[in-house]
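Please decode residue identities from the backbone states below.
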């Protein structure tokens, strides 16, 4: 009788282990499927055929509801050239809040990127996605988008006061903005 009781408890414990293991596997599969759907939606919304760029953007928090931030990534990059300061963070927040595509999730993500420096891979992925988007636009739209992105970069650089606090771009900022422009204008 005691043997039977130990066997039953052992079997129950084993069944519980496998039930828990199956539930964890199912949860992981659902999460992977949800992430794949989010990446596909992001890829479609960006019009970016570069799956690596979309995967990196997704991994850093970008979703379809925050897609407008792709245009803001170069300005965030300029803000972090010499370590972002309060003036740059404030300027970016003010400019972003006036964008008609702003979302609460986008503001939270921008704040995160302004508080903790994003990885360089995010900036590179953002540029690839922007370049792809620029290539799909007509000449007028392409010029307008590029001008808007570069103006955001310059406004961010000017917010910190430049070299002597006079609202000018520092040589590093000017040089980096030129690199961003060249990168965005070059074909794949």
């Amino acid at each position: 009788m005691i043997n039977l009781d130990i066997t039953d408890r052992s079997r129950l414990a084993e069944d519980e282990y496998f039930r828990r293991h199956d539930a964890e596997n199912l949860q992981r599969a659902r999460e992977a499927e949800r992430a794949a759907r989010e990446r596909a939606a992001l890829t479609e919304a960006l019009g970016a055929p570069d799956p690596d760029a979309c995967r990196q953007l997704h991994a850093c928090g970008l979703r379809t509801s925050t897609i407008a931030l792709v245009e803001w990534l170069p300005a965030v990059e300029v803000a972090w050239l010499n370590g972002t300061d309060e003036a740059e963070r404030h300027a970016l927040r003010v400019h972003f809040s006036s964008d008609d595509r702003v979302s609460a999730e986008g503001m939270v993500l921008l704040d995160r990127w302004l508080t903790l420096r994003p990885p360089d891979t995010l900036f590179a992925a953002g540029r690839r996605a922007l370049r792809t988007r620029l290539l799909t636009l007509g000449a007028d739209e392409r010029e307008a988008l590029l001008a808007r992105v570069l103006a955001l970069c310059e406004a961010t650089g000017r917010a910190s006061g430049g070299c002597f606090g006079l609202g000018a771009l520092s040589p590093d900022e000017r040089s980096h903005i030129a690199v961003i422009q060249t990168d965005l204008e070059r074909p794949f």
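Observation: The chain has one domain: 44-185.
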